[in-house]
Amino acid sequence: MAQSNFNKSDIVDFVERNPNVDLKLVLKRLADETPVWKPDTKKTPEDASGSTNGVSGDRKGVSPELVFKTASKITVQPVRWLWPHILAEGKITLLAGDPGTGKSTVTASIAAIVSNGKVWPLSNGGPVLPGEVLLFSAEDSAEDTIVPRLMAADGVLDRVHIFETVKAGDKESGFDLVSGLYLLKKALNDIPGVRLLIVDPISSFLGECDSHNNSEVRAALAPLSKLAEDYSVSVLLVSHLNKSRFSNPLYAVTGSLAFTALARVAYLTIKDPEGNGNLFLPVKSNIGLNRDTGLRYRIESAVVSGGVETSGIEWLEPLGGEAGDYFGKEKHEPSAARSEAIEFLETELAGGPKPSSDIQTSAKELGISKNSLDGARRNLGVISKKDGFQGRWIWELPLVQTGGL
Q1: I need a labelling partner for 134 at 20 to 30 A (CA). Which of 163, 201, 216, 401 fits?
Q2: Is 381 helix (H, G, I), strand (E, B) or coil?
Q3: pLDDT, tens digit, for every residue of 53-109?
Q4: Phi and psi dihedrals of 318, rounded to 5?
Q5: How far is it, in rounded angstroms, from Cα 389 to Cα 373?
Q6: How confident is the model at residue 403, as a pLDDT?
Q7: Which segments within 123-264 are labelled E, that is strand?
Q8: pLDDT at 72 (0 to 100)
Q9: CB-count exposure of residue 176 (10 Å: 0-12, 13-18, 19+)
C-alpha cells in the first residue's frame, strides 16, 4: 500500500478500506520511511514553539513581548469600601474562626446590613448604600437557619439570594468556583446591583482543587478575584481555623496559606478567653488599617415570625490592636501583670468615667501591656460607652464598684 494513499485519510478509514492488510507491518514501514526530525538551530526558542510562557504569537511569526505602563501615566484611585477597613469593593476578604464563634451568624448580620442599608456596627459613618447579596452556604439550611438569622438581623429578604443548585434541563448538580465561574458571572449579569458575595465555607466550593496546595488555591481564586474587580463586588470567603495554635494567626487558617495571602483583608473570630463574648479581629490588610478595627460581639437568641427560634449578633464594643495581640496569648498572661493592671484601673476609674484613650496612654507609660489592660477590664466588668453620637469612648466601673445603687 502506498504511503501517499495512507496520508489522505485517518487510520480508521484506512483499515475499513483495507480489512486484510497487516496493520503492524504497514505502521513499521511508515516509521522506517519517516525522516528523523532535526531542530532548526537558526530559529529562536520562541520561533520554534510559537509561544513564550503560555503567550502565543501569531502565524506570521510575531513574538509576544512584555508590556509596561509608566507609573506617571496611571490614574490613582482610592479603595472603595463597603464596610470601612473590612469589606472593600472588588476585593476578597477572608473570615476564619473556631466552631461556636458564630461565623455564619456574623455573615448573616453583615448580609442583613447590606440588604437594609443601615449603619455598620459601632460606626460613626452614615447608612450603607443597600444592595443585593449572593450567598453560597454548604453547612446551613436556608429554611430553618439562614433565613431566620436574616430576619433576626432585620434583613431585606428580597435582596438576599441563597444558592440552591446548578440546573441544566432536568439535571441538578452542585457548584464549584473552579469550573463554574462563568455561571457566577451570568448570575451577576442577571441580578443587577449585587454588592456582596458570601461563600461559606470556601473549601466546599472549590471542586477538585486541593485546598492545601498553594498553587491550586491560587489558580482557583485568581479568576474569582478578577471577577470581583470587574463587577465591583465585595467577596467574603468563610473558613475554619486549624487545630494548631500558632503564635501568628496568619498560619491558623485551615488549608493553604494562599487563602490568607490572596485575600486583601483577613479577619478571625475567637472566643474571649475570659468568657465575655467573642472577638472579631483583624489578621491582615493589604489595603487599609490592619489594627484597631476589631469588635467584641455576643451571640444572642432570638425568636422570629412563626415562633422560629434562631440567633443573632449583638455588637458590643470596638477593640484595639490586631489578632496577634489576642490570639493564643491571653491564657499565658502572668497573674502578677494582671493584678497590677486591675489595681491601676480601679485607681484610674475610682473618681468616675474617663476617656479610654487617656487610660490607655497612662497604662502604656507605666509599662502595662494591652493584653493585661484588656484582661483587667473584663475582670472588673468595666463598662465602655460613647459620650454622645460623635463623642469619645469612655470607661467606667459598674455602679456596685463605684458606690452607686
Answers
A1: 216
A2: coil
A3: 445 555 567 899 999 999 999 999 999 999 999 999 999 999 999 888 999 999 999
A4: -75, 155
A5: 26
A6: 41
A7: 132-137, 160-162, 166-168, 171-173, 194-200, 234-240
A8: 97
A9: middle
